[in-house]
Structure formats: C-alpha cells, structure tokens
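Quick check before the chapter quiz. The format below is the same one you will see on the exam, so make sure you can read both the input and the output lines.
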Amino acid sequence: MQHSELRPLKGRVKKVLQILERKYGIPSDRKVNNPLDTLIQTILSQNTNDLNRDRAFQRLETRFPHWEDVLDARTKAVAEAIRPAGLANQKAKRIREILRWIQKHHGKLSLSFLQGMDSDEIKKTIGGLKGIGPKTINCLLLFGMGREAFPVDTHVLRVGKQLGFIPERMNAEKAHQWVAPLVPEGKSLSLHLNLIRFGRSVCKAKNPQCNICCLAKECVTKFKAPIIDGLVKSQ
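Here is the expected output.
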C-alpha cells in the first residue's frame, strides 16, 4: 500500500487503540521474557488456549528442567509432558527439531545470538523452521525480545475484521504484513493485548456482547466500510 492509502486505515486503528486504552488502560508490564522460553510457549499455544499452554509448559519444565534434557529425551516422553496443549506428538517433534537446530548452529541452547540482529534478519533466520510461522516470530519479538512487533492471533484477526482494518477474506498469515504498518509506533503491546481482552470479553466469536461494546460505532458488521474495499482490490 502507498502512504496515501495507509492514512485512513492508520486513522481507524489509532481510534480503536485510543478507545481501548480508555476502556482497559495502557498495559504497563513490559517485562521481557527469556526468548527461548517464549518461543517454546508460543509453539505450545498453537491451536489451544492460554490455560492449556501454561499447563503444558509447567509440566515440561517440571519433567525436563533444562532444554538439554528435552533433547536427550525421547519424543514420546516430551509429548506426554505437553499433552494438555493438544497436538502433542507434532509439537514435541517440532520443539526437539528446533532445539536441535539451535544447538547445531549456535553451540548452545539459547537465542541470545538473535539480539544482534534486526527483526527482519531474525525472521529470515528462524522463520523457515517448521512450527515457526508469522505469529510465533512476532510473539518472540514482542514478548521475548521487547521489539516492536504485532502478533495476529484468532481474536485479533476476528476483531480486526469486525472493526474494518483487516480485509474480511484475509488469513492470519497475510494479516501480519497488512496490519504491521498500521499500528502507531510504540503501541504494539497495548493494541495487541487490549484487542485480545476485548475479543475474549466483548466481541466474542459466539454471543458477542454488542449491547456493552465500546467500539460499536467502529463496527462494520452491519455497515460495510468502503474504506478498505478499494485497497484490497489494488493488492
């Protein structure tokens, strides 16, 4: 998109951001987690909820206190540890493959080597590994490295479409590139967390609470906003 085409969508996202911050506040917890822990947690979160992810990660830590222990174990044992996250066999295999790749290319089980890279280089370096898609990389950048990045999960994708800044037929993978230039500088964390909170409590996939919605005037469900239609056709 050209700069002139971005302007109306950026304005829409900024307005949504401001309304959500007035409603929920500005997230102040900018604590950066261990990058490798964040990466594995995000893989565990795929196709499940946060509660199951956290249960699986806690069981994994208890059973295998060090990442070296995960590599030394059998895939079946790792799968059993992360069973609450679902797709356990697939996720266990991918986690061990990623750990093996890190060990082989960087000599130790740490992602500290990424700190010297810019975000685009990080995406190119590990984005080709199985199990690491756009959402996983952006979660790593945002929560594990304190970088500006905007993960698009199921809540963000759904709500973004309801609010007219993500095209209706766009999938999550393409939405990452679409939304990134629309987010005000320094506001990735706030917008991401507040959209998820809004999506879980108000703009639910089933039984949305439209009667208490603070963003009702921005919703395009009933009134399709032409603001995005021409932009999509030009892509």
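If your answer matched, good. The first helix runs from residue 3 to 24.
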